[in-house]
Amino acid sequence: MADSTAVTKPILAVQNLSKSFTTGGPRILNGMTFHQKPGQFVAVVGPSGCGKTTLLRCIAALMQPDEGEVLHRGQHFDDPPSWLSVVFQDYNRSLFPWLSVRQNVAFGLRGVSARDPQIMAALSAVNLEHAADLYPWQLSGGMQQRCALARSIVVKPKLLLLDEPFASVDAQTRIDLQDMVMGICRSMQLSTLLVTHDIDEAVFMADKVVVLSTRPARVVEEIAIDLPHPRDQLVTKETPEFLRLRHHVYTLVRQQAQKLPRETQTER
Amino acid sequence: MTARSLTITPLAWQAGTIVALVAIWHWAAIFHPAVYLPPIQRVADGYIRLCHGELLFSALLPSLYRLLAGFVVAVVVGSVVGIAMGSLRGLDPWVRPTLEYLRFIPAVAILPAALLLLGPTDQMRIFVIAFGSVFPVLLAATDGARRVDPTLIDVARVSGLSTIERLWRVVLPAALPSVFSGVRVALSIALVMMVISELIAADDGLGFYILRNQRLFQTANVYAGVLMIGTIGLILTLTLLAVEKRVLAWHRGWRGLMEANRG
User: Fold this and answer.
1) How many structural domains does chain A have?
2) How many Cβ contacts (< 8 angstroms) between chains A and B?
3) Considering A156, A177, A209, which residue would you say is the last residue of a domain?
């Protein structure tokens, strides 16, 4: 695994990142630092409303931090780098309703027709070939998110950012999607950064879990997850090691959540 | 059987109403001859004369040309400026006060000034029609562009689209449903401005035709001209609806889903 090559330059380095929405206003992110090695699957968890989406937008260069920096393979970017792909949280807001599934997948590919074999390959990777000519609003939630996933892998990214991608689907679909995403990321040797509030999901899928504090968010702890691959929803989740890690992460997140002020916190 | 009779009945009622109106007119004109009530046969003759021969070229076609030219200018300018204003926030404070002021000026009021500036020309009439009908399109496009889901813009940015590509491939299609609602309003205004612009310093067009026949007490021709304007409005509206139905087929399904989610 790429993990073992300690000298490899990180594909992503978040260094002392701080961000507030208004100049001089309260900070959302406060001096956040962590690294991601090539091929690594990192999950970022934290209490809800702690600024996970803001972090992801800074990492994607959709937003610039106030202090600190985000380096992609050692470089700073003002706009999202071409090797980066994002799957957004709300699938029914991130697909173009006027484009068919096939055209949605082809959206980010320059000069490639929607009939190109690449498109069908990406669709078959997410088991959506049969729906290629449907429109997003004709699909179920899970299918829409698979379409968004196909769109993000068709460009053959090096780094895939997932912003709570399974948050709004039912439990069974969620499990299927987790297995699908893990399979794709491993077969494409993708570096993946998953932002989630689901601790089971984070521990089950990731090689490393980054636990965030409540606002202003900073990194509380980075936990290496050495569960063997391939992971199985039943077998892996019943191992003592999984339960131990889950217990540890859960305790950290709960400690943070208890520090939350009474008022409702919303992200973005 | 039930579905069949349900679909036919409204059509039958509509046809029946028209036949009844025509019959009333016909008998009224026979029993009470008056200048304002010409026999319907003469109105029909006048209507048909507008569709071919000399009147086709001196009344119907000039009007259609001005109407369509003014309308197209309004739709293009309104969409482009509106979408730019809606998506490039920096532009708004510079342009909006002027536009907010201009849109309260009735297009009729600028007619004399347009006549002075451009003379009794086609350009003058096209300008007046475009001025009158541009604002509904412009405001609808601004609104549509402003309400584009920010997630879609993020997707476009991650996909590496330039600002122009983003406007063309994301903002324009997303704003189209809104633009179309503005375009429908613009069409009816354009029709009004076409007639009005031809009542002043004109020597052709349907407006002029109606005005001249009114002065000559050719009431049947006046009515024929009015009916022709109604026909133009009807045909253009139906055409627009057909285009909209085709271009925005996705929108009905999508809106249905959004409403289902909300409910």
Assistant:
1) 2
2) 63
3) A156
| B256 in reach of chain A (CB within 8 A) | yes
Are A156 and A105 spatial neighbours (Cβ–Cβ below 8 Å)? no
- Read off the pTM: 0.84
Does B11 contact A at CB distance below 8 Å? no
- Evaluate whether residue A223 is within a structural domain: yes
Q: What is the CATH number of the domain that holds A177?
A: 3.40.50.300
Q: Is residue A266 part of a domain?
A: no
C-alpha dist (Å) from residue A73 to A14, A38, A81, A110? 11, 9, 10, 24
Do A238 and A176 sit in the same domain of this protein?
yes
Predicted ipTM of the assembly = 0.87
Task: Encode chain A (268 residues) as per-residue pLDDT tens digits.
Answer: 444 444 578 889 998 888 888 877 888 888 899 999 999 999 999 887 788 888 999 999 999 999 889 989 888 899 999 889 999 988 778 999 999 999 999 998 888 888 888 999 999 999 999 999 999 989 988 899 999 999 999 999 999 999 988 887 888 889 999 999 999 999 998 999 999 989 999 999 999 999 998 888 889 899 999 988 889 888 898 999 999 999 999 999 888 878 765 444 444 4
Range of the domain at A108: 90-156
Q: How many residues does chain A have?
A: 268
Residues of A in contact with B165 (CB under 8 A): none
Residue A69's closest CA among A20, A127, A12? Answer: A12
Distance of CA B241 to the CA centre of its chain: 11
Task: Determine the Cα–Cα distance for residues A218 and A46; give it in Å rounded to an integer.
Answer: 10
CATH of B39-262, one of 1.10.3720.10, 3.30.9.10, 3.30.830.10, 3.90.1150.10: 1.10.3720.10
Q: Which residue of A has its CA nearest to B153?
A: A94
